[in-house]
């Protein structure tokens, strides 16, 4: 970007920051009047206008909020005495960082609401409050709590402690952001005796400056903190600590606070304190297996809180399954836990330009996701610490080439001096990460050499270079529909590839990714790492991700999703490589979390409390896995209470032995016989799911079928006993009458497996591939472990009910009428009056397309409607041996501390 264009853009952006929703006419008017100072041609001016239109079309809404019923509001009456010094500085920084006026206004409203849920810092006497803020991965939680810190300081909070992740690079990154948004000075220089450097908000006003006891290159140190020489009892301006979530660091801080900052008579610190716990579900919770043991980190956070006479704890997390809801053995224990958010829970809505799970896994997965299926011979999914790698999987080479071509497209879009990043998360072992880094570096050097030597040649001559041909193939496959021809991209390949570096990001790497050091040129990097890349670390300008991990845990997976975030002007270039089964888990977890967010919104409307939401989280079906994992040391069996209302369960994992397959076919035939003997005629199902539908069927045949089905112990939610008990408890209300679908393809081909005996009419079996993790005893349906097709849960609903559900979803998400939407099945579930039993007859094939079981394989699913009355949970008995077999890497990673 030329200096003239950059200056023009800065001026127009500053003028537009004052407008909440600038019109296209207003944007062009400002550009026209401002360009009189700069020689910008009409084409460039119009392109800039369109960029501003996109940027300022971004909106954000205020999320849901739950509070305890005893809460007494204080902020409204106190606001007249609050001078928003720190917030005003931060708001100016946000505008400079190109947050739109509407988004800044909403962030102002949200942080104001959260501040109001804290206690009044000027209130005398002892008090403490506990709360939680639920955001999205890479969605701006740091921006939110930085804004909250600024407002808390304005209101009178004197001590602010930010606990920021368990790794140095994340802590350092968070400290740098606090320096920019709150302190206004480079803390690395401030505490090292070097010449002071003003940064971020300090450039706007330095009248008042917070005191920092940590810096961006070093965690808390008692000697360094003591050298500041300011007692916390006598603070004129707020003091801030940004510390690692580490038992030793917390111990040092606790000792220093007791020794230097408590009153001499040994009583508590009186200064009002705000503790922000970033990634609150990670390491803050009680992770020890013994009932009476409390994890060291959990205990020390509580000790710090208890050292202050007046304190507020706010945990930030992207996973509303946060383990503080789940760990204690009883509901009463959960509600009494010190870090339980008993006073408030706030759910943040991301801006409309957030590139999140819905975009990646539901709206357009074919555009973003590429499968990894060629790694086992080179880098197995499960491998040991001493694994030797002598080559890269072809899929990783393709991802690397995609990154180079995508960066060339960004150059063509005039995104010069912008950060561009690629992520490679393929092993938790630093030894393996180093090998990957070296191999990627060598491959990148080949690409850089070819781009330098051949990139400027005529196209026909250039494509005689094998590497240029491969890059051209990537452009053809991935980006040929973008606005630039190959000849334009080829001419930019050298400039695109030359600055790229490959770095390790783990406990052995020398420092954090300091994007702030490259603001004028942009940092172009391929980051190779493991656990350090999985928690909170932001990769600026992330375009390509390569994810190869053997994790199925909801929190681990979501936190590994560094590819979520904001991608202005290049979201169409983003690609994610992952195993197909990982996509299935991500889809499931993303939908589960969204369901809990919707539940939180409904609870807000009903004036529910955080305790009631906590109990809802604990009864969610996914807590079977979470609780079993957390409790594995307590015995071989774990009992978990689950509610199935407004949920979908299905047998995606099946017994494979001949007797079980036979018995399940027999159960399906008995169900069909009972239905055909009744006076309920079957109708042909219309829509995405073909087959035959029986409506308003009594509950008896359903209970008998579920009880007779031989379930696999690995399919925990479809365990017949608790499912039967749940149905029996509610068959006098919403589970009295059922819809039953015998799913069938609308058309069958010559090779289609059929069953003509079941209902007396041909049923064309749905074809499903056996998942790679199937074995001689277990049949997993597809790598994603999904049986039903999307949209099947609308079966049995009227056209009016379907339309109402879809229109409600559009309104909730803000979709325009002309936008095509992939509707999630959960929206139809909430519209159901009767539960839906889906019986599947499957033609199971191998990955090469050959039939592996000669007869139809029976599977089933149930879509439960929303409960009409208070839900009675049923108990599931979880086999922890199964959890240990399936989640071994997650467990080892936690116990061994991540990157090894």
Polypeptide structure, described:
With 900 residues, the chain is an alpha/beta fold. It folds into five domains: 53 residues, no CATH class; 270 residues, Rossmann fold (3-Layer(aba) Sandwich); 206 residues, no CATH class; 48 residues, no CATH class; 186 residues, no CATH class. Helix content is 39%, strand content 15%. It has 32 helices and 29 strands. The strands form seven sheets. The protein has an eight-stranded mixed β-sheet, sandwiched between helices. Helix 5 packs antiparallel against helix 7 and helix 14 packs across helix 23. The C terminus is likely disordered.
Mean pLDDT: 85
CATH architecture of the largest domain: 3-Layer(aba) Sandwich
The rounded distance between the terminal residues' Cα atoms is 42 Å
Low-pLDDT stretches? 286-294, 891-898
Class by SSE composition: alpha/beta
Task: Round the Cα radius of gyration to an integer and report it.
Answer: 29 Å
CATH topology of the largest domain: Rossmann fold
Number of strands: 29
CATH superfamily of the largest domain: P-loop containing nucleotide triphosphate hydrolases
Shape: globular
- Helical content stands at 25-40%
The description of the largest β-sheet is:
8 strands, mixed
Strand line-up of the largest beta sheet: 1-8-2-7-6-3-5-4
Tally of individual helices = 32
Strand content: 15-25%
CATH level-1 class of the largest domain:
Alpha Beta
Number of domains: 5
């Amino acid at each position: 970007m030329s200096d003239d264009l950059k200056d023009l853009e800065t001026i127009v952006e500053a003028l537009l920051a004052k407008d909440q929703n600038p019109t296209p006419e207003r944007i062009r008017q400002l550009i026209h009047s401002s360009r009189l100072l700069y020689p910008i041609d009409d084409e460039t001016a119009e392109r800039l206008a369109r960029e501003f239109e996109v940027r300022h079309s971004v909106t954000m809404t205020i999320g849901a909020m739950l509070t305890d019923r005893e809460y007494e509001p204080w902020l409204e009456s106190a606001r007249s005495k609050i001078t928003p010094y720190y917030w005003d500085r931060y708001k100016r920084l946000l505008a400079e960082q190109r947050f739109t006026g509407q988004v800044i206004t909403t962030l102002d409203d949200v942080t104001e609401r959260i501040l109001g849920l804290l206690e009044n810092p000027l209130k005398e006497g002892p008090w403490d409050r506990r709360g939680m803020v639920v955001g999205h991965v890479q969605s701006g939680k740091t921006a939110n709590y930085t804004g909250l810190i600024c407002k808390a300081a304005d209101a009178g909070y004197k001590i602010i402690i930010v606990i920021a992740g368990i790794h140095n690079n994340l802590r350092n990154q968070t400290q740098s952001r606090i320096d920019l948004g709150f302190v206004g000075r480079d803390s690395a220089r401030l505490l090292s005796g070097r010449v002071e450097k003003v940064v971020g908000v300090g450039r706007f006003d330095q009248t008042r400056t917070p005191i920092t006891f940590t810096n961006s290159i070093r965690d808390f140190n008692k000697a360094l903190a003591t050298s500041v020489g300011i007692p916390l009892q006598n603070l004129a301006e707020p003091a801030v600590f940004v510390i690692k979530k580490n038992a030793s660091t917390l111990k040092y801080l606790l000792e220093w606070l007791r020794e230097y900052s408590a009153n001499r008579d040994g009583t508590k610190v009186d200064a009002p304190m705000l503790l922000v716990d970033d990634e609150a579900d990670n390491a803050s919770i009680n992770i020890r297996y013994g009932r009476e043991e409390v994890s060291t980190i959990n205990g020390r956070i509580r000790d710090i809180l208890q050292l202050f006479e007046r304190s507020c704890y706010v945990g930030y997390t992207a996973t509303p399954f946060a383990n503080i809801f789940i760990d204690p053995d009883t509901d009463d224990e959960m509600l009494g836990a010190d870090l339980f958010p008993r006073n408030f829970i706030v759910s943040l809505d991301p801006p409309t330009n957030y590139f999140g799970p819905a975009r990646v896994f539901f709206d357009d997965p074919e555009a973003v996701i590429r499968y990894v299926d060629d790694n086992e011979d080179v880098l197995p999914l499960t491998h040991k610490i001493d694994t030797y790698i002598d080559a890269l999987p072809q899929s990783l080479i393709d991802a690397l080439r995609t990154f180079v071509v995508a960066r060339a497209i960004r150059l063509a879009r005039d995104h010069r001096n912008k950060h561009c990043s690629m992520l490679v998360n393929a092993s938790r072992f630093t030894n393996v990460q180093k090998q990957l880094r070296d191999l990627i570096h060598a491959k990148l050097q080949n690409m850089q050499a070819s781009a330098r030597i051949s990139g400027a040649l005529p196209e026909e001559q250039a494509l005689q270079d094998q590497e240029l041909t491969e890059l051209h193939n990537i452009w053809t496959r991935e980006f040929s529909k973008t606005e630039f021809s190959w000849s334009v991209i080829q001419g930019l390949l050298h400039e695109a590839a030359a600055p790229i570096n490959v770095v390790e990001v783990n406990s052995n790497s020398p420092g954090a990714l300091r994007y702030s050091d490259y603001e004028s040129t942009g940092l172009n990097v391929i980051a190779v790492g493991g656990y350090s890349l999985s928690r909170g670390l932001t990769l600026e300008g992330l375009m390509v991700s390569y994810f190869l991990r053997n994790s199925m845990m909801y929190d681990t997976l979501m936190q590994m999703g560094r590819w979520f975030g904001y991608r202005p002007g290049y979201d169409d270039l983003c690609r994610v490589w992952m195993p197909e089964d990982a996509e299935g888990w991500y889809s499931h977890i993303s939908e589960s979390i969204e369901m809990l967010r919707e539940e939180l919104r409904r609870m807000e409307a009903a004036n529910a409390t955080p305790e009631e939401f906590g109990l809802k989280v604990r009864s969610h079906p996914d807590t079977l896995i979470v609780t079993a994992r957390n409790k594995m040391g307590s015995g071989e069996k774990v009992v978990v209470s689950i509610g199935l209302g407004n949920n979908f369960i299905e047998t995606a994992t099946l017994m494979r032995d001949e007797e079980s397959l036979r018995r399940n076919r027999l159960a399906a035939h008995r169900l069909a016989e009972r239905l055909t003997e009744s006076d309920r005629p079957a109708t042909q199902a219309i829509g995405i799911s073909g087959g035959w539908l029986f409506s308003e069927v009594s509950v008896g045949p359903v209970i008998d079928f579920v009880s007779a089905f031989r379930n696999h112990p690995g399919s925990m939610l479809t365990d017949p006993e608790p499912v039967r008990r749940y149905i029996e408890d509610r068959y006098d209300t919403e589970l009295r009458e059922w819809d039953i679908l015998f799913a069938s393809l609308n058309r069958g081909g010559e090779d289609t497996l059929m069953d003509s005996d079941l209902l007396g009419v041909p049923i064309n079996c749905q074809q499903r591939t056996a998942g790679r993790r199937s074995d001689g005893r277990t049949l997993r349906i597809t790598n994603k472990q999904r049986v039903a097709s999307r949209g099947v849960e609308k079966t049995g609903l009227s056209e009016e009910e379907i339309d109402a559900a879809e229109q409600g979803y559009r309104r909730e998400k803000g979709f325009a009428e002309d936008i095509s939407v992939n509707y999630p099945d959960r929206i139809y579930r909430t519209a159901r009056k009767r539960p839906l039993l889906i019986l599947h007859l499957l033609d199971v094939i191998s990955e090469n397309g050959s039939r592996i079981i000669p007869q139809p394989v029976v599977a089933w699913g149930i879509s439960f409607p929303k409960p009409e009355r208070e839900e009675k949970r049923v108990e599931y008995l979880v086999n922890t041996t199964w959890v240990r077999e399936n989640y071994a890497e997650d467990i080892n990673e936690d116990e061994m501390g991540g990157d090894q």
